Amino acid sequence: MATSFSPTNSVTTTTADKFIPDIWSDEIVAAYKKNLVLANLVMKMNFKGKKGDTVHIPAPTRGSANAKAAEAAVTLIAATESEVTVSINKHYEYSRLIEDIVEAQALNSMRNFYTSDAGYALARQVDTDLVQLGRSANGGTAGAAAYAAAYIGGDGTTAYVAASNNESALTDASIRRTIQRLDDNDTPMDNRFFLIPPSSRNTLMGLARYTEQAFVGNGTAIRTGEIGNLYGIPVFTSSNADTTSGSGAARVCLMGHKDAMVLVEQVGIRSQVQYKQEYLATLFTSDTLYGVAALRNAASVGAAKSSAMFALAVPA
Predict the structure, then answer these.
(1) Could you tell me if residue 71 is inside a domain?
(2) What is the C-alpha to C-alpha distance for residues 20 and 316, in angstroms, rounded to an integer?
(3) Do residues 288 and 268 both lie within one domain?
(4) What pLDDT, in 10s, does the model give residues 226-266?
(5) Which is more confident, 247 or 122?
(6) Which range of residues forms the domain containing residue 107?
(7) pTM of this prediction?
């Protein structure tokens, strides 16, 4: 007759609760979403579960209306359309190897910190990759001439000079001039954003007109980083704002439209936990796979007909 085996020290879902990854995943995704700023403001495409390393996005040319002459054929519009390619080449991870002695002796708050920190680290990386796309605003490049064609603060009329350091404090004139540039380029009024560094938020808080109810809002804003509404454009502050490549390493404000950039996610935030017996420890890893690209901000200063984003250099 078979004898049943009833161990008294088996590992159960209760004793192994800290190793069950679902809790880690939920907490990390929540922290990730909480810390995203620019990624929540631009176009996002879901590429999850699909194969391939490149996404092709059509970039058609806008057509013009033509007058119809009596008894004449209609005017046909023909254009060789272009495209924007997005390479899925950014794979970032966050890993911790937690030894058993730590698991046994540490407070539960340790896991809370790791999950929050993982979400923050990955969110910051995604935002960094998007923010740095601003370097190509108005024909700028990512090298020594980064933001070479971006507009500075001050009167809002002077162009930033390559590899120089002529930034100035953010002013109402430069904000209004930048808005006009978007308007002149037929950029849609909705879905615009204004991303500023903490130094510019400090400047705005010192100007009486921006501390009025019309700017600070009614306190119902729930999007991360949003501090108010300026001339109908939501304003967001981020310590992750980019810096220029000049000697002064000025911070940069970005004003643009949702369609100026795209974020393509092939693998969203995921978390995995594996016990490593050879180390008597648990390996915890969270990662994401994605790609970013500029969509409508690569035109030159003189002919920025397709520009949907402008940069302003301000003191750090």
Answers:
(1) no
(2) 44
(3) yes
(4) 777 888 888 898 888 888 765 556 788 888 899 889 999 99
(5) 122
(6) 18-60+76-127+264-293
(7) 0.79
Q: How far apart are the first and last CA of the chain?
A: 80
In the numeric block, the tokens 């390393």 are attached to 53
Q: What pLDDT is stored for residue 97 in this prediction?
A: 92
Q: Is residue 10 part of a domain?
A: no
Mark whether 171 and 209 lie in a shared domain: yes
Q: How many domains does the chain have?
A: 2
One-letter-per-residue 3-state SS of the chain: CCCCCCCCCCCCCCCCHHHCHHHHHHHHHHHHHHHCCHHHCCEEEECCCCCCCEEEEEECCCCCCCCCCCCCCCCCCCCCCEEEEEECCEEEEEEEEEEHHHHHHCCCHHHHHHHHHHHHHHHHHHHHHHHHHHHHHHHCCCCCCCCCCCECCCCCCCECCCCCCCCCCCCHHHHHHHHHHHHHCCCCCCCEEEEECHHHHHHHHCCHHHHCHHHHCCCCCCCCCEEEEECCEEEEECCCCCECCCCCCCEEEEEEEHHHEEEEEEEEEEEEEEEECCCCEEEEEEEEEEEEEECCCCCCCCCCCCCCEEEEEECC
Answer yes or no: is pLDDT of 117 > 60: yes
